[in-house]
Amino acid sequence: MIDLHNGASTVIEATILVVAALFPVVNPLAAAAVLLNVFSGLEPAVHRALARKIATYCFFLLIGSLLWGVKILTFFGISIYAVQIGGGLVVAVTGWSLLSRDSTSTRSNSAQDSSVLDRAFYPYTMPLTVGPGSISVAITLGAHLPAELHASSFLSPRVLIASFVGIALVCISIYICYRYANAAERLLGASGTMVVLRLSAFILLCIGVQIVCTGVQDYLEAIHQI
């Protein structure tokens, strides 16, 4: 009974770790603000379908990166440090571009295109929602999660439960933010929406810098151990 309780507690802690690591990088609040020009003007049914498709694509993309990302990197001879540094740079650049974007820029009329659902994966899911930074974080989690749960491989039930539940919670938050983006914009107003976007962009910039610093630090530690 004690072992079962400890096992459940460990899985819950790992699930929280997955959510805490991915949610700030995915940052669905900022992504929803960026995609407001897409959501505005959509029919409610199309808006719901688009939000649902993006959340679904994000789930499969993140779970695939977490569970099989390390294997893919090993096959191509790419180190996890390179993914962290490269992904962190992309996140930082994305945050900076959003932070320095002209607040008076006009919205595009892409939402009027009848093929908006065809663009649910690219570019709305990747790279606008789940970009290289999110993928690098998911791959890093996949590399360390089995050790955190004292599991022999990523196919361990504890690893699978923590991965699926944690990523599902992140994707549910994506759906909620995207589904109700227009309502949030009306509630906040133009100035409030811009404040949220700027703050989210600054946080995204800091997250990108932190990912780069972590990758460089881990790489230097690995060199010193050789």
Automatic annotation (TrEMBL):
Predominant location category: membrane
Pfam families xref list: MarC
InterPro entries, sorted: Multi_antbiot-R_MarC
Location relative to the cell: Cell membrane
Residues passing through the membrane, by range: 16-42, 54-72, 78-99, 120-139, 159-178, 190-212
Gene Ontology CC entries for this record: plasma membrane
Membrane topology recorded in Swiss-Prot or TrEMBL: Multi-pass membrane protein
DNA damage among keywords: no
Keyword terms, alphabetized: Cell membrane, Membrane, Transmembrane, Transmembrane helix
Family the UniProt entry places it in: Belongs to the UPF0056 (MarC) family.
Name listed for the protein in its UniProt record: UPF0056 membrane protein
